UniProtKB/TrEMBL annotation:
Pfam families: Glyco_transf_5. One of its GO terms (molecular function) is glycosyltransferase activity. It comes from the Eukaryota. The keyword Glycosyltransferase applies. PANTHER family: GRANULE-BOUND STARCH SYNTHASE 1, CHLOROPLASTIC/AMYLOPLASTIC, GRANULE-BOUND STARCH SYNTHASE 1, CHLOROPLASTIC_AMYLOPLASTIC. This is Putative granulebound starch synthase.
Length: 108
């Protein structure tokens, strides 16, 4: 298949939605639930499509005292698919500028 031109935005939104889901879903009846934001959550990120999830977890939630004990397991299914996009698209990702250098393959 071919990539869509806005895949970076599509999968960015997927990661952000995955982090919002435990906050919105009724987890009170779950034996695994603790606290107001499901702090015992383990997020499974698979391939480049969900590679931004740990970045959003740290910048948007842990920095605000949410998901403080949440963990991420990152699995690489196929290293051939790396999801590389133009560096100018970084601003679409809704991440702090401090993260920008982490995505620069030329200097880092």
């Amino acid at each position: 298949g071919t990539d869509y031109e806005d895949n970076q935005l599509r999968f960015s939104m997927l990661c952000q939605a995955a982090l919002e889901a435990p906050r919105i879903l009724n987890l009170n009846s779950s034996e695994y639930f603790s606290g107001p934001y499901g702090e015992d959550v383990v997020f499974i990120a698979n391939d480049w499509h969900t590679a931004l999830l740990p970045c959003y977890l740290k910048s948007m939630y842990k920095s605000k005292g949410m998901y403080e004990t949440a963990k991420v397991a990152y699995c690489i299914h196929n290293i051939a698919y790396q999801g590389r996009f133009s560096f100018s698209d970084f601003s679409l990702l809704n991440l702090p500028d401090a993260y920008r250098s982490s995505f620069d393959f030329i200097d880092g």
